[in-house]
Each structure stands twice: as C-alpha cells, then as structure tokens.
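Notebook entry, structure prediction.
Reason for the run: the old model in the group folder had no record of what sequence produced it. Starting over properly, with the input documented here first.
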Amino acid sequence: MPEGDAVYRAAARLRGALDGRVLTRSDFRVPRHATADLRGRTVLTTVSRGKHLLTRVEGGLTVHTHLRMDGVWRITPARRGAPRAGGDGVRLVLANAEWQATGIRLGMVDLLRTAGESQVVGHLGPDLLGDDWDAAEAVRRLTREPDRTIGEALLDQRNLAGIGTIYRAETLFLRGIWPWRTVGEVTDLEGTVTLARRLLDANKAHAGTVTTGDRRPGAQTWVYGRAGQPCRRCGTRISRGEMGARPQERLILWCGACQPR
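New structure, fully documented this time:
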C-alpha cells in the first residue's frame, strides 16, 4: 500500500494538473456516483490527509479517493482522450483542456460536500506530513492502548496518519525497538513518532524510499525488503514475519540483535 509520502506526491501531481482549471470531463466509473457530473466546475486544490486524497471543486464538493494496495493517479495530456470503459481498472477520470487525471484501481471513490470531509478523514490521527502535525497528540492516542504492540499501534491510522509497513519497520529498527514490545514499554514514544515524521518528510519529494542516506540500488533501507540478508549494523540475518489479527495481518521485518526483546 502506498504510504504517506507517495500519497503526498500524488496530491502534488494532481494539483499541478487540475488546480485552477475548469473540468471538461468528469467520469465516475463506480456505481454509487455513476451519474455525477462535475463538468464546468473549477478545481480548487487537492490535499493529502495521511493515505487519503481530497480534491476540492467549485460549489463546495470534494472528491475523496484512496489508493489502497495498488491504486494510482495517472496524469496525461488531455488530447489523448478518455480511456476505454472498463480498461485498465479505471475508476475515475477528471480532465480539463490541458490535462487528464485518470484514477486506476482506486480503493475508494467518494463524492461529498467539502464541509463534510470529516466523514471520511475525521477518524485519522495527526498527519505525519501535515501542517497540523502534533507529536504530543499522536503520543496521547498511542497511549490509550498501552498493552497493544507498538508495531500494530503505529500502523493504526487513528493514532497517526501516513505510516505504513516500510516506515514502521525502518523507524522501529532505527529506534532499536522490538516490534512486539507494548506501547507502555516504549520509553520515548515522542522520539519514535518524530523519527517516523522525519523519514517520511525526507522522502516526500522523490519516488522511492531511502532511510540509510544511500540511494544506490539495494542500499536504501535498513531492514525493509532485506529478509534473510545480514543486518547493515551487526550482521545478524534480518527476520521476517506478520503482525496483526487475521485478515489484517501485515508484513514486519526486524533485526533480532539490534531490536532485542
């Protein structure tokens, strides 16, 4: 699933293509909004909220989308025309005279009043890449369940929004925290969430995830994507497992020596 930095970049691409321009094409290919038509309305802006995207248009309306596991927004010149119906998993097309934004395999597509955006994002915790980021509030939310594992708590978007399996693994490694340690046993939660924010912020302007400072292929991460390989710090084989109750279990990687029980 794309993490907060990837969604942040998607919002920037949508702003560059749609902001301030009048929609000449509006094609919702989801049953719930199949008759919706936004043509003639000016797009005001697109913002990211954790892993959610909010495209606000004239008239007090917001298009809410979520990429889920493999969704993507593709930006192309408008002259290419609309993709064929049913082609390539297209769920939504928004276009103006210059650019076309095509939402492919989107996990969520909603059209709602801008004043009611809280219906779809109000449950989220502080956004790691948001102007309103609040580390103290993230810590407060995490500590509501002190007996929960820190690995599961960090992925709960109600605690802090935008972190996924990559940044969870990298953050916990860099902090030396075993993923199954309980929230109540973590001595510096604020330092942990602040590091997660720093990692996402460092990657928000470019594709790919680099947490080691080394952009060479195969050298970008400490533990994620490196199961069975030697730890870059101590040489111990990186472990791989799953966390969470079925069917919500998610991948976790860690170093048993650098992240002791």
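Summary: The longest helix spans residues 4-18.
The old model has been moved to the deprecated folder.
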